[in-house]
């Protein structure tokens, strides 16, 4: 095929007017692409702003229900819930994760009751419940043990599913946990509960504000490099994704988001599976800080980064900007 070239070919032609740009847009961002992570705290009528995440608060269950209504009205299909567990409910074995009346389960039931049409995604990992802030159980040397941790994660998943969670999202990075959780969900009558695997989750410096939000930051000793991935690796991410798909994941997630768009694109290229990205707390904080010093227009920065995930191949994005972005898109 002979390609036209300049001057017959002018790529600026289709960019010349708004209607033409709209017609030629290859990707589009809509509110239904957005999953909104929210932090739950104890009490009634409580809003606790999170200093390292300006504009994001923890909400008590009653106020969380209002957030769920707002999300639904803005066209957001799904919420991701994270609990801020009080220190006295934390323990070395994270047993509070198995309590059917813990903060998570209480929030899930309240939202399902009041806003039944919205999806609820729940994080599976023990860090919101452990006294040491690691995602699993420790041996004497302080190593996070794999198989014994999986047994607790299964219990945590079943506890969340019984409370009404729609999507179980294991974020712990233990080997073999997706298959084990899938099997348990099938056996316990939760065949329609989905698994979105945090398949390629990196040991990232961008999680700091999140750890403040769930109250594990101050508790965490050391790092999570013995289970979360090395930012240097991409082949390994593809192996992680392949395993999670083989074990029964309905969708996979790449996390963090923007610094790992290359991973998203490669996963999408290689596998026929829905891919999601988590634009994490540090990314949110970075955008807010940039806007606050006038380095760019906040709304434009937010929408451009979210659209980038669609272009890279994502079906959707977890983002703390979800409500704001959905309202901008709906306006
Ligand atoms: C828990 C978990 C983390 C995040 C989501 N689930 C933190 C971590 O692994 O330390 C981070 C999300 C964010 O930074 O917004 N396993």
TrEMBL record:
GO molecular function: porphobilinogen synthase activity; zinc ion binding
UniProt-annotated binding residues for Mg(2+): 240
Enzyme class: lyase
Keywords on record: Heme biosynthesis, Lyase, Magnesium, Metal-binding, Porphyrin biosynthesis
GO CC annotation, single: cytosol
Origin: domain of life: Bacteria
Active-site positions on this chain: 201, 255
Catalytic activity: 2 5-aminolevulinate = porphobilinogen + 2 H2O + H(+)
InterPro entries: ALAD, ALAD_AS, Aldolase_TIM
EC number: 4.2.1.24
UniProt-listed GO biological process terms: protoporphyrinogen IX biosynthetic process
Pfam family membership, one: ALAD
Pathway as given in its UniProt record: Porphyrin-containing compound metabolism; protoporphyrin-IX biosynthesis; coproporphyrinogen-III from 5-aminolevulinate: step 1/4
Subunit structure: Homooctamer.
Family assignment from sequence similarity: Belongs to the ALAD family.
NCBIfam families from the UniProt entry: PRK09283.1
Protein name, UniProt field: Delta-aminolevulinic acid dehydratase
Species of the source: Sphingobium chlorophenolicum L-1
């Amino acid at each position: 095929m002979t390609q036209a070239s300049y001057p017959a070919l002018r790529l600026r032609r289709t960019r010349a007017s708004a209607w033409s740009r709209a017609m030629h847009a290859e990707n589009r961002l809509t509110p239904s692409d957005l999953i909104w992570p929210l932090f739950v705290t104890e009490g009634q009528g409580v809003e606790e702003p999170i200093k390292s995440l300006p504009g994001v608060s923890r909400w008590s269950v009653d106020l969380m229900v209002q957030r769920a209504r707002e999300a639904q009205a803005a066209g957001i299909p799904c919420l991701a819930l994270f609990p801020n567990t009080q220190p006295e409910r934390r323990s070395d074995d994270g047993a509070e994760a198995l309590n059917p009346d813990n903060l998570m389960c209480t929030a899930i039931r309240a939202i399902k009751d009041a806003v039944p049409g919205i999806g609820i995604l729940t994080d599976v990992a023990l860090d919101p419940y452990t006294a040491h802030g690691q995602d699993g159980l420790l041996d004497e040397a302080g190593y996070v043990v794999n198989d014994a941790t999986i047994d607790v994660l299964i219990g945590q998943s079943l506890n969340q599913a019984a409370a009404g969670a729609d999507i179980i999202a294991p974020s712990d990075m233990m080997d073999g946990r997706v298959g084990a959780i899938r099997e348990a969900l099938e056996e316990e009558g939760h065949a329609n509960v989905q698994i979105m695997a945090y398949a390629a989750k990196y040991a990232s410096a961008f999680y700091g504000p999140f750890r403040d939000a769930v109250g594990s930051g101050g508790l965490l000793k050391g790092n999570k490099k013995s289970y979360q991935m090395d930012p240097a690796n991409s082949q390994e991410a593809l192996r992680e994704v392949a395993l999670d798909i083989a074990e029964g994941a309905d969708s996979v997630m790449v996390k963090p988001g923007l610094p790992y768009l290359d991973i998203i694109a490669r996963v999408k290229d290689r596998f026929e599976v829905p891919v999601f990205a988590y634009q994490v707390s540090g990314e949110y904080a970075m955008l807010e800080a940039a806007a606050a010093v006038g380095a760019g227009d906040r709304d434009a920065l937010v929408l451009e980064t979210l659209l980038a995930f669609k272009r890279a191949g994502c079906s959707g994005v977890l983002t703390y900007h979800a409500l704001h972005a959905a309202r901008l898109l709906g306006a």
